[in-house]
Amino acid sequence: MNRIKNIFLNNIGLKLLAVLFAIGLWFVVINFNDPTQTKTYTTSVDVINQEVILDQGKYYEVIAGDPVTFRVTAKRSVLEQMSGSDFQAIADMEYIENNQYVPITITPLKNADKVSIPSKNYSMEVNIGKAVSNQFTVVPKTSGNPAAGYGVEDVVSDTKTVTVYGPEDVVASITSVEATLPVDGTDRDITQDVALKAVDSSGKQVDTSKLDFSKDKVKVTAHICMVKTVPIKVETSGSLQDGLELASITTTPKEVVIKGESRDLNKVTEIVVPASVINLSLITADFETTVDINQYLPNRVNVLNTADATVKIKVDVSNKVSKTFKIPTNNLTINNLAPGLKGEFDDSYVNVEIVAMKEQLDKLDETKISGYVDASGLSKGKHAVSVVLTLDSEYQAKTTTTELIIE
How many whole angstroms separate alpha carbon 94 and alpha carbon 47? Predict the structure, then answer.
């Protein structure tokens, strides 16, 4: 027993010193392995009391300070367990300074007793401006193409108007608010909730990040129908006056898309504008008119797009001109000459006046123009015979004679 007692009591001073040294060494090791450190975090800023600005008919936009970056001091083991989401940053608009800077208060959401945030003035910079609201008609639209043989008959929205609130200059730039429904590959009616899009006068999308819509989405329905594309043909009556030639008849558009049931569409291969519409005998110069081609379609068939039903017909006419050509008589054949007789022309050339469009006349080579004369019933002697030229239908040769000597 004394021996055990002596073990504890002998050199007790040294033993106590060793215990104290061990405790001190433990604290040193602990602090060496888990020292106090400072670490940087970033978190988003929650804005409160926004009505202080909004109730004045104004808006604010954040220029800088959101998200906010800040420093935190704590034991390394604590810092390693925390992230930016473990802190709350609040900007209270009630304390805005100089109408520009809003103080930010940062609070830890956990380990509040183990961390400290070095004192620093954090703030969010904002821009304050005038806010307005305006009401816009919702324009339902479609994008893409339905399945082959199908088209969009019409597209409607369950919401007629929406109110847009935001910066005055941004709202003023909006021309319309669109709701676009994709219809790629569909062959039946389709309905979807569609996000609204604001566009400017050039058709470009307006940045809506600063805007508030009374409704973010609207329900859009596209009605799908069977369609067919057919050409437009124009018939004419009467004839142009002398000196005029029909250059062209064109329609705008040249073809249209029609809708209806399959059995009805199969009966239509073209849309014919009747001859009563274009009477050439009444036309003395270029002429234009419009017609509604729905009236030339059978029952239960109509033009898909109403705007395409109004077709413009343009009749272009040109004035003919005349030009005299010097044609070698060697190019003329003598027909129906009596047997035993021989004929030859008194002149080497014959002048013939030809009427046609200028561009057509410019194509003629007088050395290659051919024709004939008729010697039926002619006896020996000199005769005046009519010259008939071999020309295409767009050319008209005026009556001309030449001297034919028969021997």
Answer: 10
Residue-wise pLDDT tens digits, 288-314:
999 999 999 999 999 999 999 999 999
C-alpha span between 230 and 266 (Å, rounded): 11
pTM for the model stands at 0.58
Of the pLDDT bands very low, low, confident and very high (cuts 50, 70, 90), residue 11 is low
The more confidently predicted of residues 93 and 29 is 93
Residue pair 148/226 in contact by the 8 Å Cβ criterion: no
